[in-house]
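Table S2 (text version). Query chain:
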Amino acid sequence: MHQIIGNRLVVFIIILLTSCNSFSNDKIVETPFINEIKSKYPNSYVGIENNMYWFSFRGSKDSLDNWFSDIEYKKDSIGLIEIIKYPKIINSIDRFIEFKSLKTLIIHQCNLTTIPSSFFNLKHLEYLGLNDNNISIIPKKINKLNKLKHLELSTNNIKKVPQEIGDITSLKEFTIANNLIQKFPDEICNLKNLDGLSFSNNPRLKKLPDSLFKLNKLKVINLSKCKNLKRFPDNLWLIDSLVYIRLDEMDLKEIPQFVWKCKQIKTLSLSSNKITHIPKELGELTNLEKLYADDNRLSEIPEEIGNCTKMTSLHVQYNNLKTLPSTICNLKKMEYFRTRRNPWEWMPECIDDAFKIYHKFGSVPGVERR
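Corresponding structure-token output:
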């Protein structure tokens, strides 16, 4: 769902893969038109796939004043446009409507204060990304984008999600992290095709819709940094497609009860909370592959962790652990074992043999074995 392109080109290619049916391994196509655009915008990116052009313009490195006129005559065969760090895009914002085949539109870090109404006439749009702007309102007309599959509105000033969001039943991923949302409408449960949902870093959020359990295709939910969210619907575990739960940096003192009923979960992230105890119900999560519990107040890990035999990653750095249960050696698929910054006193004797063989990355404390 949902990130900053630390290697921006890598994420851009992911976006491209999302918006196209396939991405061939053939040699990158070069045409006179592509070479012309590359010469004018040397720090930006352009390509063609399945006879459709894609552009990723960088306003911080290239002058984009003529971006539209330079690509206008190919407008009927352009499927993706990305504009990064070009606030003057507002002066030509309504030109996007002329790209009749546009499926992916990304405008990041351009100081947009609204979602332009002209965008709602992009009938083929499947991916809309407007991260890192100053948008405060999601218009009700957002529901006109009835083919939209991916909506990214992170790092804005949005306080409310309109109930009309529930009309976009084609939506698969919805990311609205780093905003000022206080609550979400019940109509969000109408998004029957949603498989990724990120509300992270909405510090004013206090409650989740009770109807959220109706999202029966949801695989990923990210609630990290929602520090005022203290109540979770008891029925969340009914989402039997849920495999990834992220609850980092929420000031949690205990792990929400619904988690232990999510028997199908594969990744559970609980880092940077105030959790002192992991209950024995951990052993019931037999499909769990990755557990992140760094930077908490844990003093022990339950023996039942030995039932989690599919686990490949265990992160328990920066806690108060003095030892681990001997059942830890049942985790023979482990590849990442992170244990730094704990007051270790001793370890199960099997740690030396089992961990040297199976654990490829991580740290094994140099303390007494018993």
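Notes on Table S2: DSSP finds four helices and 17 strands in the chain. The longest helix spans residues 8-19.
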